[in-house]
Write a structure and sequence with these properties.
Layout (H helix, E strand, L loop, with lengths): L39 E8 L2 H20 L3 H11 L1 E6 L6 E8 L6
Antiparallel strand pairs: 1-3, 2-3
Helix pairs in contact: 1-2
């Protein structure tokens, strides 16, 4: 969100299988995720402008995390940028988009 990154040394093992061509014109993949997180603090936003809803949802998360941790706004924004997961949650309420920002609760209780 704010252009920050967290570099870390890592080793990645990847196994790829090439499937026969499908009728889909867009690339697709299957994956499984092993998450350590079981508790999340989430904020939501709703409105017709997807980008504004994303901003509102993110700022709401920054406000909540700042209030809980006592971090300065800029530090909280970087923390949410690195740990948060911004998702489009609903598109069926035309013309409105519903978005949610999921932040691991362990980062909101510092």
């Amino acid at each position: 969100m704010c252009g920050t990154g967290a570099e870390t040394p890592a080793t990645v093992r990847l196994r790829a299988n090439v499937a026969s061509p499908s009728s889909s014109s867009a690339p697709w993949y299957e994956h499984s995720v092993q998450r350590r997180e079981t508790a999340w603090t989430c904020t939501t936003g709703i409105g017709p402008d997807l980008f504004q809803v994303a901003r509102d949802t993110t700022l709401r998360a920054v406000d909540i995390v700042a209030a809980r941790t006592g971090l300065e706004a800029v530090d909280t924004y970087m923390l949410v940028s690195l740990t948060g997961d911004l998702r489009v949650s609903e598109i069926v309420d035309t013309p409105n988009w519903v978005m949610s920002m999921h932040v691991p609760t362990r980062y909101t209780l510092m």
